[in-house]
Design brief:
Number of strands of chain B: 10
Number of domains of chain A: 1
CATH architecture of chain B: 3-Layer(aba) Sandwich
Number of helices of chain A: 12
Number of domains of chain B: 1
Helix content of chain A: over 70%
Distance between the termini of chain B: 52 Å
Radius of gyration of chain B: 19 Å
Number of strands of chain A: 0
Structural class of chain B: alpha/beta
Order of helices and strands of chain B: EEEHEEHEHHHEHEHEEHHHH
Largest interface: A-B, 25 and 32 residues
Largest sheet of chain A: none
Largest sheet of chain B: 6 strands, mixed
Order of helices and strands of chain A: HHHHHHHHHHHH
Oligomer: heterodimer
Distance between the termini of chain A: 27 Å
Shape of chain A: globular
Radius of gyration of chain A: 18 Å
């Protein structure tokens, strides 16, 4: 077995063995789907915008990827705290491969959670407009999971403790989610919100998924894909740079 | 005299104002069992962290197995194994999985790996529990697992940072017997720290005593007692490092904590 494979496998084993993580991570998106999807659905319909659940599902899939991807970074913090990071870093293996093995594990986990939420949304009544677009939707989800786990790994390499990570959560992840187009359409949103959403890469991810799943787009799919590609490159550079500087 | 396998020249590590390691130089010969002794916060762990490529020295030169540790960390890493002072096992994996992961990280070929893991886990008496999650292990069992893991890839140099901390007498004897065998039989170089001076006296061929970041004495146990006019290594050690108990401030002087303190200072 290769170094990256075994590190990936370790992440998988950890995930499968802690069942609470599986449920913990999909609980929140499900709550959003139920409370918002059903709760606001009738208001949304009365406003003449159509089916809110259809509109919401792409946003919630992105939410799942965002939270589980960035939170996965906490794994690096755990490894730092409980010493296992040392064991990996003194091994005669480049840090790039250590980072990639672990991050691919994290990306797989968050992708799995997103697919779980996606499946549940089908049970709740969601239907994609064009089934042939599903492969592209999955590709976008894969790219997004890579962006977000890299981002999480980079952040975790920078902060010293769990409190620091908590602060990041409040000041970065929540704004990224709420100030994106995940929950509301941007078309008639106030100027400020629209501007904030337009500088937020998460909006483009939501927009791309919305295009593939329900054929609605605010920015246009080409622009979405360009932003996602740039984000992927930037996130990987950020993660590699921070992880390389990590001292234990 | 043969080429030393570990060589430190005027190595300094500072954290802001604090000098954790203050210009130390020493040589370790291949196959030698070398003990690095000193009170809490003297700079032992910082030195080991620098030797094992986890920390960069502020200045000075470290050569290991012919490689410059700061310039060729990857090659240097292939030369050693280490048992850390603090636990560094993955608790959510079984003992066997921990060993397997380590073997692959260090490029131990698949063929010999299973056999070698079995041999080592039997040596430290954990083979029966190999499929139990490490989080169910006691402190002593974890320690034994880490020792077995440090030996897995047959390193040229083995660093043991307070390896016997929290171990019972039986396991301690087993460990030192095995270490002696490795040194004699395979010519492995052993570099260890300990607070138990009887261990150092019995096992180490050469000893260096470090205090306040400086090496205050080095030589064989006999040379040290002779030099200080004492009877045992313990007396010699106390003569050299003083009898005052290191309080919490100097305890927080050891490597990681100093760095954290320096960083906190910078943040404020």
């Amino acid at each position: 077995m290769d170094v990256m494979q075994i590190l990936w496998l370790r992440q998988m084993k950890r995930y499968v063995r802690s069942k609470s993580r599986v449920f913990g991570a999909i609980g929140q998106p499900l709550l959003f789907l139920l409370a918002l999807g059903y709760g606001l659905g009738s208001v949304y319909k009365r406003a003449g915008q159509g089916d809110y659940l259809q509109f919401l599902v792409p946003g919630i899939i992105v939410q799942t990827l965002l939270f589980s991807g960035v939170f996965w970074g906490i794994q690096i913090l755990f490894d730092k705290r409980f010493g296992f990071l040392k064991e990996m870093l003194v091994a005669p293996v480049s840090r790039l491969r250590i980072l990639m093995g672990n991050a691919l594990g994290g990306a797989t986990i968050s992708l799995f959670q997103a697919i779980l939420v996606f499946t549940i949304s089908f049970i709740l009544g969601f239907r994609p407009v064009d089934w042939s677009m599903l492969p592209l939707a999955f590709l976008i989800m894969i790219v997004l999971s890579l962006i977000l786990t890299s981002f999480g790994a980079g952040i975790a390499s920078m902060v010293e403790d769990f409190q620091g990570f908590q602060a990041i959560n409040n000041f970065l992840i929540f704004p990224l989610f709420f100030l994106s187009s995940a929950l509301y359409p941007l078309t008639n949103a106030p100027e400020l919100l629209r501007w904030l959403a337009s500088i937020n890469p998460i909006s483009y991810a939501v927009d791309a998924l919305r295009y593939t799943l329900i054929n609605q787009s605010h920015f246009g799919i080409t622009k979405d894909l360009v932003v996602l590609t740039i984000s992927l490159i930037a996130a990987i550079i950020f993660a590699v740079n921070r992880f390389n500087r990590l001292q234990v | 005299m043969t080429e030393p396998i570990i060589q430190a020249e005027e190595v300094v590590k500072t954290y802001g104002e604090i000098k954790a390691v203050d210009g130390i130089s020493f040589k370790v010969q291949p196959g030698e069992i070398f003990a690095f002794l000193g009170p809490n916060g003297a700079g032992k762990s910082t030195t080991i962290s620098m030797l094992t490529t986890m920390l960069r020295p502020t200045s000075g030169k470290l050569i290991m197995n012919g490689y410059d540790v700061t310039k060729e960390p990857a090659s240097a890493r292939k030369s050693f194994g280490i048992v850390f002072q603090d636990p560094a096992v993955e608790e959510e994996l079984t003992a066997y999985e921990n060993m397997e992961l380590h073997g692959i990280l260090y490029g131990v070929g698949n063929k010999g790996l299973r056999k070698r893991i079995e041999e080592l886990l039997k040596l430290v008496d954990l083979w029966e529990r190999k499929d139990s999650m490490v989080k169910t292990y006691s402190g002593g069992m974890r320690r034994r697992l880490e020792i077995a893991r440090g030996l897995l890839h047959h390193p040229k140099i083995l660093f043991l940072d307070e390896p016997t901390l929290g171990l019972d007498t039986q396991t301690r004897n087993l460990l030192w017997d095995y270490v002696k065998k490795l040194s004699k039989g395979e010519g492995m170089t052993i570099f260890f720290t300990t607070h138990y001076l009887d261990e150092a006296e019995e096992v180490a061929e050469r000893i260096a005593i470090i205090d306040h970041g400086k090496i205050v004495a080095s030589g064989t146990s006999k040379e040290l007692t002779k030099q200080t006019g004492t009877k045992t290594l313990e007396e010699a050690y106390l003569e050299l490092t003083g009898r005052t108990v290191r309080d919490e401030t100097s305890k927080s002087n050891d490597g990681l904590n100093v760095r954290r303190a320096a960083r906190m200072g910078r943040l404020r």
